[in-house]
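User: Here's a structure from my thesis project, written as structure tokens. My advisor, Dr. K., wants to see whether a designed sequence matches the one we expressed. Can you design one independently, without my sequence as a hint?
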């Protein structure tokens, strides 16, 4: 049977391996507290759930690919409140979460015949940028996120030849998995390079709302959004991963290209999801409550790790902790040792070669489970 060589060449999605290991342990009747995947387990605000229910009508036709005007307006209001920017609702496109839009974005911008055949992405990181690029037939170049550089990409290390071939650069701040936020200068520099070398900057901002001290900035705050696309989602902000609701906003020319592209591959989210999303983007109280819960869980874990002199390399924002592996152990070995004690974490190496030396805790278990994990870590570490 013919099968895509890209598919054949890909190892199992690493988290499938992680879940298999946890399942094997559970099958033996053993406890597992799962800090592996970043799927929030906080409940969704009841008003959002009610809006979803109210949105189910006797007949639901295809949703228009451009999304409901009410939702685009709600996102525009949110961006104004949160980042002080004025976005024309026409320059916002609702997506089914952001994963599908991230995956297919390389197909929208790559132009190999014009010499624009390369996608640059940071690693360790979310694996979908690379998979989308490869399936689009791109060359992929990686920008390592190293602690020595504050987990920011070293843009000076990119050769002029690579810039010339680059069609798309992915960045993700606040960063999964390293938890650092971008300084505004990073976006300014990238946007200037994008104009100089004619590539698109895609800023994946899935975690801008999960912060502890200071609200992170957005690439939407750039004074010139030429060649810039920003992706954001309700998944983490509003604990709505199952709803599938996000958006892309930015350069009107890019949003125009997406409006042309998206009707072919699918649609906007189901209209009842879009109606629920209007309520979610219009409300900050539930987001503040979620942040408070993450902050308490973060404090619990940070205290437990500090007590055992385990170094936390990043914890400024997101729902993760980026924890240094103790000397003499690889990240997979450290994760295996923690799993033997019932604590499931993601080895950093699963997220890219520069993730070696770290493990990632996703602060998704309940507060009670986190308290129990502290007891287990007391023995494991
Ligand atoms: C960095 C990053 N971007 C995007 C996503 C996609 O989220 P969604 O498709 O639920 O919007 C995730 C999900 O884990 C993520 O970690």
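Assistant: Designed independently from the structure alone:
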């Amino acid at each position: 049977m013919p099968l895509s060589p890209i598919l054949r060449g890909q190892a199992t999605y690493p988290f499938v391996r992680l879940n298999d290991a946890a399942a094997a342990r559970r099958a033996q009747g053993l406890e597992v507290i799962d800090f592996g995947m970043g799927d929030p387990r906080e409940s969704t605000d009841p008003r959002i759930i009610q809006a979803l229910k109210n949105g189910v009508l006797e007949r639901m036709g295809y949703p228009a690919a451009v999304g409901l005007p009410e939702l685009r307006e709600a996102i525009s209001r949110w961006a104004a409140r949160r980042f002080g920017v004025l976005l024309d609702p026409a320059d916002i496109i609702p997506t089914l979460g952001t994963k599908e839009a991230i995956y297919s974005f390389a197909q929208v911008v790559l132009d190999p015949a014009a010499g624009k055949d390369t996608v640059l992405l940071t690693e360790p990181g979310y694996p979908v940028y690379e998979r989308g690029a490869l399936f689009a037939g791109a060359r992929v170049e990686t920008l390592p996120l190293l602690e020595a550089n504050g987990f920011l990409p070293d843009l000076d290390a990119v050769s002029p030849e690579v810039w010339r071939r680059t069609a798309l650069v992915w960045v993700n701040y606040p960063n999964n998995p390293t938890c650092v936020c971008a300084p505004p200068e990073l976006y300014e520099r990238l946007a200037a390079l994008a104009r100089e070398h004619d590539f698109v900057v895609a800023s994946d901002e899935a975690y801008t709302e999960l912060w502890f001290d200071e609200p992170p900035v957005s690439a939407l705050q750039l004074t010139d959004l030429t060649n810039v696309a920003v992706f954001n989602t309700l998944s983490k902000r509003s604990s709505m991963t199952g709803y599938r609701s996000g958006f892309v906003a930015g350069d009107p020319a890019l949003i125009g290209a997406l409006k042309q592209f998206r009707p072919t591959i699918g649609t906007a989210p189901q209209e009842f999801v879009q109606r629920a999303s209007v309520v979610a983007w219009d409300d900050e109280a539930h987001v503040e409550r979620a942040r408070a819960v993450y902050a308490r869980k973060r404090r619990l874990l940070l205290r437990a790790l500090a007590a055992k002199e385990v170094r936390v390399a990043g914890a400024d924002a997101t729902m993760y902790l980026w924890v240094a592996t103790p000397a003499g152990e690889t990240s997979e070995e450290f994760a295996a040792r923690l799993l033997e004690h019932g604590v499931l974490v993601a080895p950093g190496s699963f997220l890219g070669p520069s993730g070696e030396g770290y493990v990632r805790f996703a602060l998704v278990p309940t507060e009670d489970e986190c308290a129990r994990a502290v007891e287990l870590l007391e023995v494991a570490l």
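When you compare it with your expressed construct, this may help: The chain has 14 helices and 13 strands.
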